[in-house]
Specification:
This protein has about 500 residues and is of the alpha+beta class. It is built from six helices and 30 strands. Strands 1, 2, 3, 4, 5, 6, 7, 13, 14, 18, 19, 20 and 21 form a 13-stranded mixed beta sheet that branches. The chain has a six-stranded antiparallel beta sheet with strand order 22-23-24-25-26-27, with no helix packed on it. About 10% of the residues have low confidence.
Length: about 500
């Protein structure tokens, strides 16, 4: 059963507004702040109870107390109502920090400090056992974004029990769960990324300083070495930057880097024979052919009606592309007002490539190169194809259609193109529109490769009349005037 409560209710000991037996209720829980939500479907007869921001309270897999999820954008058909509801911990995005700076504080004090300084009184009770000391500045950030920064900087993991929020050194346990390749791996989809693996490192630091031994090697070694030269920044103050201290700091940074990157990044998704006792953060030992890996449970989908885990994701990194993409978009939004449309496009594309190019698979056959989101190519959805005919991207599989393409006959097809300077001998267009167009303001500028005419700007007023201004336009003016008269007459005839 699920129970529906009003938006500001806190006591869930009753049936609330109504208790409902749902047609579907699927819980998805991810590690820390990456997501916790339910997907629900109920009969249309409950339409008067399922409303935006009401609380849907259910018994989840991991908590003793029923948990509250806030209903968002319910959709109704003639027979059913469907909605997704996020756990109330994500209400934190609606509480604002104007200029809050927890300085030299441990986890508990940092959380308490920001929780006491939101624009509206925070409903959360916070706790942490993280003892590391750190500092952060939150200027015009919401509380959820602040938690994300604290999670990274203080190196903790968040957990929630309704409005009780905890930042912990670790969640989950090691109960000795073992997964071995080719033995108990039926129903498992495997993702591996070896691009960042390092087993032999040549570190360089401030002002080109290196360690006397030149290289450091990890305890883990594979059939071939993974050697990289890595540059490290220094955290030492100017007066502390003696050669001895710089070398000591560099060696420690290199050791930490090796420890973090000596293993491949792996993610496994299980859809059958799932240990139903697994919880977020629980350790799973993976017996890889080359090395034994320590992984942890990162996500599960739990059917609340059957009380069974349907999908389990474990690994040593998070493959949540949607979450990463949302973080990219959020970071772009904070500065887009200061940038031109082209600068925004460059920033978005740079972040997208840097983040997502570490995903996927490269497949090469006799005639083409493929970049795929999954193998084999017949199962891939997002596909780049590189071959003699051209370059194309499809979000509909290997056979296309290719909505973004550049082909060998010189044609480029794309839904959205941003450019700074466009140099062309001919432009054929249906509708040409400026992003910053206003009536009476220049909407387009054309740079001509002629010594007679430098720049021509067209101005369109509210009546649809076009005039020309700009550089040396003596020879061009009459043509523009004729064009203006023609445009005005055809506009009036259309009206």
């Amino acid at each position: 059963m699920i129970k529906i409560f009003n938006a500001n209710d806190r006591d869930f000991s009753t049936n609330g507004n109504i208790a409902i037996k749902p047609l579907k209720c699927l819980e998805t829980k991810k590690k820390s702040l990456n997501g916790w939500y339910i997907e629900v479907e109920v009969d249309i007869k409950y339409k008067n109870y399922i409303e935006q921001d009401k609380l849907c309270v259910v018994k989840t897999k991991s908590k003793i107390k029923p948990q509250a999820f806030r209903i968002d954008s319910p959709t109704k058909t003639s027979t059913t109502i469907k909605f997704t509801a996020n756990h109330v911990m994500f209400d934190a995005k609606n509480y604002f920090l104007n200029d809050v700076r927890p300085t030299d504080k441990n986890g508990q004090n940092a959380l308490s400090y920001i929780n006491e300084r939101t624009d509206k009184t925070s409903p959360f009770v916070v706790y942490s056992n993280v003892q590391s000391i750190n500092t952060a500045y939150f200027i015009r950030k919401n509380l959820l974004k602040a938690w994300e920064t604290i999670e990274e900087r203080w190196e903790g993991t968040f957990d929630a029990d309704n409005w009780n929020i905890s930042l912990l050194n670790k969640v989950g346990n090691d109960n000795g769960e073992v997964v071995a390749y080719k033995k108990n791996m039926q129903g498992i989809e495997i993702f591996e990324d070896w691009s960042n693996v390092v087993t032999r490192i040549y570190p360089a630091g401030y002002d080109g300083v290196t360690i006397p031994e030149k290289f450091l090697e990890s305890e883990i070694q594979y059939e071939r070495p993974y050697t990289k030269a890595i540059d490290f920044e220094t955290n030492l103050e100017d007066e502390e930057r003696t050669e001895a201290k710089l070398i000591t700091e560099l060696r420690e940074n290199a050791k930490k880097y090796l420890e973090t990157n000596q293993y491949p990044r792996v993610s496994y998704e299980v859809t059958s024979n799932i240990n139903q006792d697994m919880e977020i953060g629980d350790t799973i030992h993976v017996k890889h052919p080359l090395v034994t890996l320590l992984t942890e449970v990162l996500e599960y989908k739990h059917n609340i009606l059957t009380k069974k885990i349907e999908t389990l994701v474990f690994g040593n990194y998070t493959r949540d592309v949607k979450q990463k993409f949302n973080n990219i978009k959020e970071s772009v939004k904070t500065i887009e007002k200061k940038l031109s449309s082209q600068e925004i496009a460059i920033l978005e594309q740079t972040n997208l490539i840097n983040t997502l190019n570490k995903q996927g698979y490269v497949y090469i056959d006799d005639n083409e190169i493929l970049i795929l989101d999954t193998l084999p190519k017949e199962n891939a959805k997002n596909v780049w194809r590189f071959g003699l005919g051209g370059i194309g991207f499809s979000s509909n599989g290997y056979e296309g259609p290719f909505e973004t393409a550049m082909t060998m006959d010189g044609r480029i097809n794309a839904d959205f193109i941003t450019t700074g300077t466009l140099d062309a001998s001919r432009i054929t267009t249906g509708i040409l529109k400026s992003a910053n167009y206003k009536s009476g303001v220049s909407g387009m500028s054309i740079n001509l490769a002629s010594g007679v005419i430098d720049t021509v700007r067209f101005k369109v007023n509210a009546a649809g009349e076009i005039t020309c201004t700009g550089g040396k336009i003596r020879r061009f003016y009459n043509r523009c005037k004729l064009f203006s008269e023609w445009y005005s007459s055809t506009r009036r005839s259309r009206q």
